[in-house]
Amino acid sequence: MTEEQQQRAAGGIAEVVTEQLRRQIQDGVRAPGEWLREVGLGAEFGVGRSVIRRALRNLADDGLVELEANRGACIKLTTLQEVFDLFELRAGLYGVAARFACIRAPQPLMAEILDNTDHLLTANEAGASAEDLIGRSETIFSMMAATSSSDTQAMIAAVRRKTRWHLSYAGLLEGPGPFDHWRRLRAALAAREPATAAESARNILYYMQNEVGRLMLARGLGIQQSVPQPSRRRDADLSSPMR
């Protein structure tokens, strides 16, 4: 295997580790203020420290952890305001994706989007799990986003990673869900009505935003303003002689 192939393979493994850690953090398995150490994580996942280091950088880019040299990464508190803002951004971007799909999607792609939407609605009526329903909805939004520019797709992917929030699943289980909005979105896509499609897509995310906010407040999550953060020792302290 060439060096380039090794780097690609390591990158793929790091993405897998990143996704598992992200889900653990967002599901509350790993709490704010907890330290993630390279050695311990390497043993847990059976990978080298370079892979763990890359995964931690990915999490830092997503704003989930704060890195500190020679110590590892400290899990940050996700506040209610941050979650609200991220869903607001996601709603806007998904509205753009739906609008572009109406304008740009070739008919075969549009037919596939509509077919997947029908399956989503049928799955909901059949009592599918929240995780299954969210997975189906993400597939549909990915198909719509494929009609946008690469920059727009990158922004959607970045915000999506940060809002894979476990309370989204709980919100679907505890409420009626945003499926009336999905029906309106389907009708607008079929009719190629960009404004209505964009509004319906935004309303789907606004519903989830409200549900996540409601559940966070009810459970006292994200209300604190701070958690123990990585220490900020001055260089002078680090270089001072031991006494």
What can you tell me about this protein's structure?
The protein has 243 residues and is mainly alpha-helical. The protein folds into 2 domains: 3-78 and 224-237, Arc Repressor Mutant, subunit A (Orthogonal Bundle), CATH 1.10.10.10; 80-218, Up-down Bundle (Four Helix Bundle (Hemerythrin (Met), subunit A)), CATH 1.20.120. It is 70% helix and 4% strand. Strands 1-3-2 form a 3-stranded antiparallel beta sheet. Strand 2 and strand 3 (72-75) form a beta hairpin. The protein is globular and about 55 Å long.
The N- to C-terminal Cα distance equals: 51 Å
Tally of strands: 3
User: What is the fold-level CATH name, i.e. the topology of the largest domain?
Assistant: Four Helix Bundle (Hemerythrin (Met), subunit A)
Strand content range: under 5%
Strand order of the largest sheet: 1-3-2
Note the main sheet: 3 strands, antiparallel
Total helical segments = 11
Please give the CATH class of the largest domain. Answer: Mainly Alpha
Summarize model confidence as the mean pLDDT. Answer: 85
Shape: globular
Quick take:
The protein has 243 residues and is mainly α.
Notable characteristics:
mainly alpha, Four Helix Bundle (Hemerythrin (Met), subunit A), Arc Repressor Mutant, subunit A, 2 domains, three-stranded antiparallel beta sheet, 70% helix, 243 residues
SSE blueprint:
Layout: H1 3-26, E1 35-36, H2 38-45, H3 49-61, E2 65-68, E3 72-75, H4 80-104, H5 107-125, H6 130-145, H7 150-162, H8 166-174, H9 179-191, H10 194-218, H11 235-239
Antiparallel strand pairs: 1-3, 2-3
